[in-house]
Description:
Elements: E1 2-7, H1 13-24, E2 28-30, H2 31-40, H3 44-54, H4 61-72, E3 81-84, H5 90-102, E4 107-114, H6 117-125, E5 127-129, E6 138-140, H7 167-190, E7 194-198, H8 207-220
Parallel strand pairs: 1-3, 1-4, 2-3, 4-7
Antiparallel strand pairs: 5-6
Helix pairs in contact: 1-8, 2-3, 4-5, 6-7
Bound molecules: adenosine monophosphate (AMP).
Amino acid sequence: MYIVMLGAPGTGKGTVGGLLSKELNIPHISSGEIFRNYIKKHNKLGKEIESYITEGKLVPDELAIQLIEKRLEEPDTENGAILDGFPRTENQAIVLNKFLEEKEQRINIAVDLSLPDKEIIDRIVKRRTCPNTACREIYNIDFKPPKVDGICDKCGTELIQRIDDNEQTVKQRLETYHTISEGLIKYYKKQDILYTVKLNNKSDLTTKDIVEDIKAYLNKD
Ligand code: AMP
């Protein structure tokens, strides 16, 4: 089963994707995290990726597709995956469909999490992330602070603020999202697999509720 998580940055794709991955027992693959891991290598490729990410721009399609397909060839994806942040352009979506078709697989649902831009900016500048890839817990210094300042409750790792989680870059990322990625929503709507969740900071819809609703949709499949 393949699940695509759509939605602008800061809408909770990572949190929902993480819980879905545990419940459905398929890996949670975040393109942003894959790219951040390349950046940590401090080599030529990592530096190239960093230059796009720090400017809030998308990594070029060819490179993004190459690195994600490499990840999708790993044996843990045998029963599918939750794709968080990929595809982000219609071209990536078309290539992904072809890739899955060759494996006699398909995308079962494209989840679109939507939240007003103003609320996204507020969420992202207050977001703190656990960099431990086995944990990845996400905090918000206002509405979900860690028990000990700056330390992950779950694994004790020091929390970080991502290099692109600042107001200026977020605004650029949102612009990129609205101009490029929204075509994807239409693309998946046409294929009749789009599932939209409208959120706002006052909504009492929890991550668990969203995951249960997605599972109910998948069971109808
Ligand atoms: P995310 O962690 O999903 O917010 O992604 C962080 C950044 O990584 C984005 O702002 C883009 O610069 C880059 N990125 C992530 N996924 C993709 C993708 N599918 N295509 C191109 N760039 C991406």
